[in-house]
Amino acid sequence: MFQLCRTNIPVLSYRCVRHCSTPTIAQTRYRYPSLDDVENLENYRPGGFHPVSIGDLFAGGRYKVLHKLGNGGSSTVWLAQDQHRREQLRSLVTLKVMSAEESSKDLAGKIAAKYTPQEVNKFSGSLNHPGKNLLVIMDHFLHQGPNGYHLCLISPFAGPSMAESPGRVSGSKRLRGDLARKVTKQLAAAVELLHSARVIHGDLTPSNVLCQVSDAAHKYDVYQTFGNPETEEVVTIDDSPPGPHAPSQIVAPIDFSRLSHSLLKEDIFLIDFGQSFFADRPPPDNIPATPLQYLSPEAFFDLKLSFASDVWALACTIFEIRAGSPLFDPFFSSGTVILKQVVETLGRFPDPRWSAWEERLVWFDEAGAPKPDDEEEEEETLLPAVQSSLHHKLSEIGEQDDAPHAYEGKMIEEVGTHLDEAEVNLLADLLEKMLRYNPQDRISMSEVVQHPWFAYNNDSGPCLH
């Protein structure tokens, strides 16, 4: 999960930067909170987020809010307890509260989209292919508040995402090798199932891959496990009362690093079908909402999402889960810098895309090779281009590991562990086939799940033939 710098300078989204000729910026009303990873307070307005507080009840008192799980561009997400199942296992649930604006857009279609995993599961029965790694929606309802009507979605409680802990705080910042291969195989199988049902996910990132939790996690006291919710008063710029449209306090998300690894299953859920669609029914004027570092070239340049763009995004996600760091570093949040890293790693774009990308001239010659050092120094080029490759990046895994703050648990790879040459060759082969520039040249998901890298083990792993 990425956060914006703490500043009152408005930040334009990728969508506005690339597609809005005269973007409008709402006037700032609230002081930026000091808490990390919280939602933009300016979204608390008519049509925006619903103000949720700890202890609030939803659906006629059935769901009680216990803690905060996170937020997205169009929703806040909460840990709640199903009061109807309070004495049973699995009474903890995830409550996603959509903004009023999002809830008003094609409500029937939006609910149908959220039920995509159930529809796919019905299809999977005929394939003998269970969709156990797709997170299903258990319940949905509308909730009226001061900012409008909000679609609320109930799903099983799950653990941290692959973009968070376990494994992203200190130490090696990655899952141990056999577990990384296991969960990415589950993820690939889930995507294959979607594609078999003619569904394009549209937003494959590590943030949308969650660890499953064991039944035992439901037995523990939430506040003993995660601590009491950390809150901060909502303050306006002019010190006027926030009013009914905003909560009185902002709540920090749960610190999943406090959740014992013994309560996490070595299995994953694929979540968030808000950008998903059936291949024969693409939404009109669809604009990719995926972070730039997971976008395929055709999604970036042409706004085209397809089965092949899912394959590209999955390749980036597989690399990140295995390496503990992104394939293309989003630190500067610049599409141009992401494209520079893509060319450094995969080579020159085909024409006419290469000639259309004018910024290439800053770093590369016409063959796609980085400019010589003396030429870049003479031109005072920022962030000089450095030629790399998938093989090189995989070989570097383990070299930049930090010393862990504490024991990271059995799920995490030991600091300084490198991939052996056999695994590097296997994974580089898989990723190269998934990251081909021409969408038609990328392998299909049925080919991805059959790749020998997933079956590799350090003792007697399979080899490429």
UniProtKB/TrEMBL annotation:
InterPro entries attached to this UniProt entry: CLK_kinases, Kinase-like_dom_sf, Prot_kinase_dom
Keyword Ligase annotated: no
A biological process from GO: regulation of RNA splicing
Signal peptide, first to last residue: none
Pfam families: Pkinase (PF00069)
Domain of life: Eukaryota
Keywords: ATP-binding, Kinase, Nucleotide-binding, Serine/threonine-protein kinase, Transferase
Location of the Protein kinase domain: 63-454
Record GO terms (molecular function): ATP binding; protein serine/threonine kinase activity
Gene Ontology CC, one term: nucleus
Chaperone recorded as keyword: no
Name of the protein in its database record: Kinase-like protein
Organism of derivation: Rickenella mellea
Species classification: Eukaryota, Fungi, Dikarya, Basidiomycota, Agaricomycotina
